[in-house]
Amino acid sequence: MSDDPLAPMRRFARPSPEARREADPFLCRHLLAKASASYSCLRTMRPDGPDGSRAAPEVCTDDRICFEATMGRGGDS
Question: The pTM is what?
Fold first, then answer.
């Protein structure tokens, strides 16, 4: 555990230009973040996914049938 209270949100922060960007396997590759902190699905282009449930990082998990990890098998992104 980290003493940093913001640690859970750091994966959503913009990386510095020097940081190497790696795919996050816990986020769906079809989740699109907008500037207003709202989200949409790239498959439907709406705020809900193909299964009708809301598109957001906390609910776009591998429990949903439409989920595809940002990282493919073998480390491909």
Answer: 0.56
